[in-house]
Q: What sequence folds into this?
């Protein structure tokens, strides 16, 4: 079975600074990878996804992520964060052979400080 | 607005009571899911329905049942609620590999 590890449970960052959220997965077969964002008291929204092709994926709100197959990682980055980026971020993986079920990491809470 | 609608938004149950969480989507998606969210554990899959008429267990199905009433609706039932089922429950739907669309969640407390 696949699993997802988000290495940081909380990341404090100053406004306009860059941020990187780390995600590693384990799977013996090909995967699809996703990042979701959850604002307080809301559901999750899709930020970006990697299905195939270019390993650098651009998403909404200026976020991007890079798929690294050899390191089984899918780290999320933003070059300059805003106060409005304060939220919890979830990495998720889906195994291609097992339908469209997602396995989520434990989440990283980003707190952007002025 | 198109999306996934969950009801109720909040619920408090006494141990042993039963209830059904409702979920409906209007995007004509084939697949629907129920997850629970607990602090530090991310989201864990309870049950899913790959298509109308089918349901399968996920990672944490014990204590729950589901019904895929039609293509739009997928309900989650707690037959005898336990304090361990205190959580936030999310319904989601998807089509192919386009990612999930989530509802806004149901915050359930079992006392």
A:
């Amino acid at each position: 079975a696949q699993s997802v590890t988000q290495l940081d449970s909380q990341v404090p960052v100053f406004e306009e600074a860059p941020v990187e959220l780390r995600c590693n997965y384990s799977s013996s077969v090909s995967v699809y990878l996703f990042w979701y964002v959850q604002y307080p008291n809301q559901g999750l929204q899709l930020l970006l996804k990697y299905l195939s092709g270019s390993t650098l994926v651009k998403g909404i709100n200026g976020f991007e992520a890079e798929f690294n197959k050899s390191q089984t990682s899918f780290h999320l980055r933003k070059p300059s964060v805003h106060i409005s980026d304060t939220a919890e971020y979830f990495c998720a993986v889906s195994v291609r052979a097992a339908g469209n079920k997602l396995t989520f990491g434990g989440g990283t809470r980003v707190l952007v400080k002025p | 607005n198109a999306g996934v609608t969950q009801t109720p938004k909040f619920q408090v149950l006494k141990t042993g009571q039963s209830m059904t969480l409702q979920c409906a989507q209007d995007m004509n998606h084939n697949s629907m899911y129920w997850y629970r969210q607990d602090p530090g554990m991310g989201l864990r899959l309870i049950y899913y329905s790959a298509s109308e008429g089918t349901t399968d267990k996920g990672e944490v199905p014990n204590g729950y049942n589901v019904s895929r009433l039609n293509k739009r609706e997928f309900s989650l039932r707690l037959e005898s609620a336990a304090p361990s089922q205190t959580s936030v429950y999310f319904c989601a739907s998807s089509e192919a590999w386009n990612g999930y669309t989530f509802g806004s969640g149901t915050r359930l407390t079992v006392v």
